[in-house]
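Lay summary

Proteins are chains of building blocks that fold into shapes. Our project writes down both the chain and a compact code for its shape. Here are two examples, one after the other.
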Amino acid sequence: MSHHRFATGLSAVALVVLVAGCAGPNADLFESATGGAAPAPPSELRGAWRGTFGWVGANFYEDEARIILRIEEDGTFSATVTRNGGANNLAKATTWAGTAVTSGNRVTLRNSKGPWGWVTLVRSRNGNVLYGVASDPVTKANVMLKIERDSRPEAP
């Protein structure tokens, strides 16, 4: 019984620390300089992006892949997902296509092709990184995504 009480108390303390940290001095980290997060038109996201996703807390198996994302001026996107190396990698190669919808600092990729229905990502303050957590429909595991704007001049 004392182990249960200790675990409950520790969980409560961790929750309080987490909530206090979210409401602390960095709570406005992703707000614009004007104080509010204005919607970014999809055209601001136009261009090539590259990134990865990986299984949160993987042990014996991996779910890791590389993502090449292209967002067009009209907000449509296409993406190619290829699995990283690794003998125990459960990731599957796939393609995504659909529309990018923005709301504040959030970007939702509404996929009309492939097993991923939609993925909502948070846009960094400088606008050059998209990141978030989603559920991989193949493994049913949570994966972390980080996609960065490809600033190379030869980017397609």
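And here is the second example, written the same way.
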Amino acid sequence: MAKSNPSNSSGSSPKPSGSGNHKGRSDRGGGLNIVMYVIIVLVVATAWHLYYSKPPSDEITAGELENRLDPERDPKGPKFSATNVAKLTIGEKFITVETLPDLRDKPGAEATPESGDKATSEARKELARKYIVPIVGIADVGRERLRQLAEKQGIRVSYERPPSEIALLISWVSVLALGLLIFFFILRRTGGAGSALSFGRSRGRMHAQEDLDVTFEHVAGNDEAVEELREIVEFLRSPGKYQALGGRIPRGVLLVGPPGTGKTLLAKAIAGEAGVPFFSLSGSDFVEMFVGVGAARVRDMFSQAASRSPSIIFIDELDALGKVRGSGYPGGHDEREQTLNALLVEMDGFSSDQSVIVLAATNRPETLDPALMRPGRFDRHVLVDRPDIKGREAILKVHVGKIKVDDNVDLKHVAKLTPGFVGADLANLVNEAALLAARKNKNRVTVAEFEEGIERVVAGLEKQTRIIPPEEKKRVAFHECGHALVACSLPNTDPVHKISIIPRGLGALGYMRQAPTDERNLITQSELESRICVMLGGITTEQIVYNEISTGAQNDLERATDIARRMVMEFGMSPKLGRVNYRDSGRNPFAAVQFTSQTEYSHSEQTLREIDLEVKRIIDHAAQTAYEVLTTKREILDHLARELVEKEVMDAEQIYKIIDEHKTVPQLKPGTNITSLITADPPVAESVTEKPGLPPASGDA
């Protein structure tokens, strides 16, 4: 595969937890809700009335009040008299003067000194108010004088009785009770898993049977896993059949497999088939910022499940909760470990409930704690692996039932073109094919859309509008033809399916795709060496044709070096280092990308040097073999490159047609001396299947 230079690139909603009959709970609380709404409305209406029914008030000093009550002081200022004051109330801290609402209704009302209607209107507006006079700190003599002045003006004077302690207590208790009532009402309305006082409650959701429409009929491609899980369902439905023989239900079932193989789909199928309460949550739902919340949620989850036993708890992404506990720290408190300890005790502890089955899924089993994996907790480990060709065909049949497919579509052929695809990839493939058919205004999906969908999933989106210089396009054509020619010439390689120089994906200027015809589980040393030769065919072609290489072979070199290093360090295929594994067994069997740690190479410097030398020897030997093949078949290489530049895409039929025109060109085997070659027709390449974890020999993006 040629790559561009990086430096020059241009359902139904589930019910809340703890509520087996959520509708009934809402009905029982309906009367209380109405009462609360009525109380809140009355409180708001009363407060509104009290606030807006009172006249506006101003605060004046005792001296100013004395000026208004004494006619001899400040004759031109506003005055208080019996004609404009309703009453004067003397309290412990304040004197309150309430004026009459309107002077026009009071006969004999005195106008302000200013003449005219405007002055009279302003005076009336000013007097129709409530005046508050602070008297804290005023001597009793001063208060008595104010009272005498008011009575002299004919104003009715009254005294305010101070409230008793009991009345104050009752008022405060009433306000506090009302506030608490409103608070608990709001808390009850928002009392879900994320409310302020419910951190310790489980976030698991209980699914009702009428809301679950997935069964085992919707699961295909992994009959062994379905059979194992079907037994769990049968035990829940008719436990007497197994108990009569002394058997017991498995305490826990762990679904293990690569991402996208259908672990969660199997859990949904169990929920739809079991006929018992089914709780589902993620491993990350136990994690919270507060200490002790995780363990509390574990206990609450099992408490809810036990109250509805027999029941099933499904924990997705168990590795977020059950990672192995570290031993590097002598003490301390780890919140995650306490959560895991609570899970261990609930699953198989002193008082564990045997009527609750725990179903979990993970794609990182190597990170789980051994205490969690032992029998008694997770009794069964069900492998949900990548489907084989029959499994892929069965999965495709399930998904194509939702779209309109042409009668000429052979699903077995499509399954043969998709080695290594999981259920999620196949579902995406069918959807891509349907979208491509709709884009072309077709009534049905044909084989062409499926093949184009495979290329979109594997190699990325096609970039036909990207402009590539003619010389660079020619170099890419030679590069990809070098891959294809080496793959067609050597034994133990997969047949070439297509080569293309149309850019796809992230930086891929072209690609060569091989299509194995059989499912293989073992790969021999000669097959791995042939794969490395195919990967080095592109860069070797550039060296032969242009006498220099480019950055387009970066991915080829990376994958070839990885295979060679694994041959030396893991597979014992080095005659110099012997049958020894030099790599620690810490690799994830289901991870697409492996990260190498510093502790992985715990060997001497001499051993590391010998490993590097052996890797280089394997790469150099493969490069020499590819060089001999390409120089011997240079005429075929030039012919293929010319056709590819013109057509941009060539399928297997076109490739082998050109090769058949040059039948006198000999075949090579890895390690064959070029001088000992004899002319022979190229044999049919033996098809193999890639071992999980090894990169493919093709130039797929």
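What can we say about the second shape? The chain has four domains: 57-159, 205-325+334-383, 389-458, 470-676.
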